[in-house]
Amino acid sequence: MENKMIAVCGLNCAECGAFTATRDNDDAMRAxxxxxxxxxxxxxxxxxxxxxxxxxSGSTVLFVHCNECDMRTCAAEKQAPHCGxxxxxxxxxxxxxxxxxxxxxxxxxxx
Length: 111
What we know:
mainly alpha, 48% helix, globular
């Protein structure tokens, strides 16, 4: 698992549909991910918005949620490479997220 593919919160970007669709330039994957996420989150997500180079990759192409992520913004403001390197870790924001996705907490521990 490449460190730069672990998001600031601990999610593995390499397992994300937006990242893989972008990496593979796969429009069918973009459409599939858009449909799944639109249904799961009860919002309209257009297939053309399914593009992301990875949270900590240095890419300027980020999925809208990743670009607006509170944890990513906080880490940037605190100049922390990821939440696990923050002096306030674990805060309530990251703790709530990790309750929903325990594998992200494990990924941060591995960093």
